[in-house]
Fold each of these.
Amino acid sequence: MITRTGALAVAAAVAALAAVSAPPAALGAAAASLHGTVMAAGKPLGGAQVTLFAGSREGVSELGHARTDTSGSFGISYVRPAAGVLYVQAAPAGASRLRLQSVVGAGSGGGVRPQTLTTVTVDELTTVATAYALAQFSGPNGIAGPSPGLENAAATAFSLADPASGKAGAVVTDQDNGGKNRTLATLGTLANLVSLCAAAHSAGCAELLRLTAPPGGTIPGNTVQAVLNLARNPTLSPAGLYALAQTATAYQPALTAPPPPGSWRSCIPTPTFTRPAASQSTPRGTSGRTTTGCPEPRIPAST
């Protein structure tokens, strides 16, 4: 017969054993929270589903989600991993083709200083910055890939757009860039194109998706895929997309003339990677670079 005292002792022993045998939390993981605002075409986006993801060599995992209030605000509590990248995606309620995204953190696995935001403004500009900077790490399941390239690419997104404010990044607006090349105006034009999908059943949105279908491919299902298509196929519809962008004015400066063929990418700093040495299994990420076609934005070395 087991007495009350004996039962309590057994229960305590079982609890202690469970504590010892329970799987530990990921090394370096820490409790954190993210608060932010989702904006579309310059206005708060209420009722949007916001999801926070972590991407790494192992793949993509969801860390938390929330729905924005009428002012576009949201908050998510989560456990922050030590390495990889953190990013959010926002989708309006209903059948909208609008998808917005932003990088909110880069872990310790890269060649750049780790940083994690506690506040974010998710809008069309952060969507363009994230898509272009992380195009080669973006797939059907989200953003993921090996270190250090993944974290270095996320750092480029921070250079293109400031996720805290939702405005152009300090690098592309400084005295060495700004009006000295087409980078800032190209970012504004691409963000204006994405903003066409803020309105439900927009004819401009349908045209954007049609014009960003890759050769021999299908029409993208949302704005994130549309921008990824442009990053990967920079020759797509320069005249048609420029004309379409003139119908939106949420972001300035913007291009004042159609870009040369191929320049949807040429003026956007995107990460390049050197071939790994024989002893390495992952590529080494370098700082953001651009292809030819306009003066290259000057990006200072990370400290």
Amino acid sequence: MKRQSSISPCRMSHVQLRRGYFSARNNGDDCYIAAEFPSVERGQMFIVGDNKTYGGFYNAPLQRTETYRVWFGVFVTVDGVS
């Protein structure tokens, strides 16, 4: 198995990608985190662009005239180790 690069699909490091919508917009970045959940229950639904805030991240409304790519990422910490 080949190890993946630390660069995200947005061509940003994981540190740069830890930006929310407003910070990304102010920095001219195309990628941002729309939501963060401390845990997810089986069957839990999430709607991209619902204009709500999740875990301190604003899930900005989507524009009909734009094209989007959506990625799902997982960050796990067990016994203080990430």
Amino acid sequence: MNGAKQPDGFGTALPAGFSTPYLVQQLAPGQDPKRVVLAGAKPWPQRANAYVAMICLADTPEDAADAQQYARGQCESFDSSDSENRQVWFGVFDATGGGAPRLVARTETPVDTQTDWSDTDLDLPEALDAKDANDANDANDANDAKLAMPASWKRFDLAPYQIKSGEYAFGVRAGWSEGYAGGGGYFEALYLFRIDGKALRVVFARPMTFDKLIAGDWHKDGTRDHDEYEASNSLVILPGATDGFHDIQLRQQGGKWRRTFKWSSTAQMYR
């Protein structure tokens, strides 16, 4: 890190009309504002006068105070246990005219959709990879082993994800970090959210990129070899459609791997 100011991925410098207590009231009614680790809102270019917003809560006000002291501006767990994962809510607001922004849709509970790491070209985080290997003899456990909640929520991804005619989803990037002896790894997933009446629903949650720095041999001068491994995918909206929703495809950047996802009317998401 060079001390440079990091991008405000969630819009924590709140736009006019928004405040942290207001976002808690609208997105997670009944929750204690003292549990807030991070709150943000950003204009959504694909919808006129619209904003996407989020709040990230710790389990307790004390945990939130620790996060403000040691990891300010980050919606990130201190460890990888499920009990420590931050609770996040997302919403869409309309800011037409004066007055407070009007809530259009929100996640009805903290986001609990896990990233699906099955059928990917990317390396898995070590903990997930180890669990996958341990459960490989049990088909049901092996499938579950490739599902994981993110350890951190990083930023809005407001690319024009037009999932059907006249309708866009917005994205959120989430991630995992892990340390090795003399190196480390970072993994990132894409979540897509769709407005469904007054509800905001996750319709896609898949890994998108990884980057590993692995330490190698030591040299007599005290330096050490390092090998870097990385890969990333891009999401492409296809012209074909299923039940009115465009098919979407992950494509390996610089490679040949492809994976197409189609809308499932039963699951109400891409499969």
